[in-house]
Amino acid sequence: MKRNGFEKGVLRLVKLRDILVSEQSLADQNVKSLDMLILRMALVHVLSLLGAIPDRALDALLTNPENGSGSLCKRLSELFDSSPSDRGRHRTDGSSQCGRLLASCPLSNGTVTCRDSISLSDGQVEELAGALQEIAPPPAYGNIDPKILMLGRIYELLRNSGSRREHGIFYTPATIAGLICDLALAAYERTWASDMPHADPSSIAQLVTLQVADNSCGTGVFLVIILDRLARLMETAAKHSPSCRESLVSEGINPESRFVMIQHILAKCIHGRDLDDTALTIARTQLWLYAVHNCGLQRFTLPHIDLAAADTLVDGKSDSARFDIVVGNPPYMRASLLPEDVKSQLRKSYSVVREYNSHALFIDSAVEHLNPGGVLGYIIHKNVFTLDSFRDLRERLLTTYQCVELVDCGLGVFRGVTAETGIIVLRKAAANSTLNTRLSHYTVTSESVDEILVLPQNDYIRIVRPWNYRYLLSLGQDDLPLLERFQDYPRLDEQAVVRRGIETGDNRRYLTGSPTEDRNWVPVLRGRDISPFRADPSAYLDYSRESLAKPGPKRMKEIPKVVVQQNAMNPIACYDEGRSLVLNSATYLSEAPKETLKSLCVFLNSGLVCWFFRKVMTNNATVTVNVLPNNLGRIPVPVSFDRTVLAWLCDLLTFEAAQSEDSEAKRDQYRTWWRTIAEAVVIEAYLPELFPGTRATKALSSFISHAPAPEQGILFSKESLSTIAREVLGRREVQPLADKGAFADRRRRIVISDSRR
């Protein structure tokens, strides 16, 4: 994702600031002072961009400085920290107007100043100011002037990136924050949906008493958007409905005054918590900027807003506050990074979560603090929807509350973060037979949301229950009958034992590519050595069992096994006839008859099982995806099929895979056997109604009865292979089923996505 002009400009500013920090060897407190100086200059620049003060007021402020070193810092301090009557007194350069406006700004008075803690020359201050004024305004966003949110974004980028990552804090794009706010408001009251021009008069009483919270509010992007949405709802209601106007008047709100509406929302409706005091100050400032800009005021003093520094996870259980809507982007942190005393307290408060992850804890805390009928809208790490460790939380949320929206945001929402995310919107009310759950997909590049499927929540629960209550985000209508059929089959780990390979404890010590005679070097398969139906071991393990961290079973090398690559988006498997050990970058299946193991190898390499694994086990994730034993073992596998045919196919495909690099003709032959003929047999095993009378298996069995053994090599002309394929497919058109993505039948259409190939 390319950076826009605004981000490039801010990064240039950050680079200049970092040079100053390095040159002056500034301590942390002085760095904060320098950042506050930059933020104050940025605020003057933003006010001029918004038209609240004269154009390029920062230039005017810095021209004709008083004599003496450091006078520009002094002038800025005078502008922000003097009494209102003294701000910019006798100035004719615009700073007088600026000073009067800043008298009510949260970034003035009492916040840290830079004059006494750092020493900057006028030239250095001017250089910073010049870099600030070169920053292009951010991209337009909805009805909110994006310049209002500039200050928060500058602060986010000024903060040390290491500190942000350490605390799991990442800036939320306004488009994502707006989407979450809109979904949450619409879930709370249908007539508040953004595409509806009128609000229901009966809902106005709810609107003016609405309590909205962001318990990790940062610089306040969610709060600014909520302020905007509520103000517009009130204005729309007052404009189009006399009864709505009367409702506003009865609540003490002048329906003609945007100023009064905004003051009411700020004082009565918005709540924010965060650990970062400076971020809270920026949040207040951006709310102030919104009010100044949208009310056309030359002076505006914020009412008291409920923004406070607090640890909402540690202190949340004892907090009696209740809200109608909770929105946000909670920080992501693993429990292992938390102090032991904090972890102990969290275990007592959040016993439902087996593996502590801050996203799961924030969800648990937020739901507890919702009023009955309240709504939660969060963007969270996608692993909460998928990992087994969050199974209990998922079940409780889905069976206790109303799951209104699930949005797959995929990768790229947060720049520089290699994690996929999703949005969850819940209503704190019991699920009922009339409630629907909507599944959607958010596209980062176009910033658009596409609805995938709407289905009754009870049906959604029935679909996800067999899969450990994984929240399946990308289900389409065509997927539902297939998943229902998959539920009928036993798990793979009921037919074979599934294990990870050997953990050495030190691969550099125990692995080599050039074995010597002085140690017990044994061929070992790593994940990278495995491709469909083929293994190319290139490493050897010093198999001294007593010194290995996890050596695995004694007879691992000798036993027949199916070896599966671990670091992959879907199963990639080969059959090993007792030739190699297996390293822990792979998983292996064993302790089953050879025919069963070979059949499982064919199943695992099929497009149909690939579709299931990606749709269910990984939620179509594309990064940080692993094929681990617990997920592999849960793959449903039919038991009523001809193992002899599938075992023969495994042997043939193993031979063909080894020969496929010799020529294009052999590659085509291999692909036809794998992607068309073997795929048809797998589909028949799972969906026998597509091949009445086990037609595909019988046709292939007839061929096998007079074919030579696969390892002897079978040469086919293109015509003879097409004849075999047509026989297997029942005279259908010959096409690679997994390539085309669809397999048509008279009675139904099934979709087999296979994006890996």
Give a short account of the largest sheet. Answer: 9 strands, mixed
The proportion of residues in beta strands is 5-15%
Number of separate strands: 21
Q: How would the global form be characterised?
A: elongated
Number of domains: 4
Unreliable stretches: 65-70, 87-94, 110-116, 732-757
Q: Biggest sheet: strands side by side, in what order? A: 3-2-1-4-5-7-6-8-9
- N- and C-termini, Cα separation: 25 Å
Helix and strand content put the structural class at alpha/beta
Overall average residue pLDDT: 83
Report the CATH architecture of the largest domain: 3-Layer(aba) Sandwich
Helix run count: 28
What is the class of the largest domain in the CATH system?
A: Alpha Beta
Helix content estimate: 40-55%
Radius of gyration: 32 Å
CATH topology of the largest domain: Rossmann fold
Secondary structure layout:
Blueprint: H1 5-24, H2 28-49, H3 57-62, H4 71-81, H5 95-102, H6 122-133, H7 150-158, H8 161-166, H9 174-188, H10 204-208, E1 212-214, H11 221-240, H12 242-250, H13 258-268, E2 270-274, H14 277-295, E3 306-309, E4 323-328, H15 340-349, H16 358-368, E5 370-381, H17 391-400, E6 402-410, E7 421-427, E8 436-443, E9 448-456, H18 457-464, H19 479-486, E10 497-500, H20 507-510, E11 511-512, E12 521-525, E13 530-531, E14 534-535, E15 539-542, E16 560-565, E17 573-577, E18 581-582, E19 586-590, H21 594-604, H22 607-617, H23 629-633, H24 643-659, H25 664-686, H26 695-704, H27 718-729, H28 737-740, E20 742-744, E21 749-751
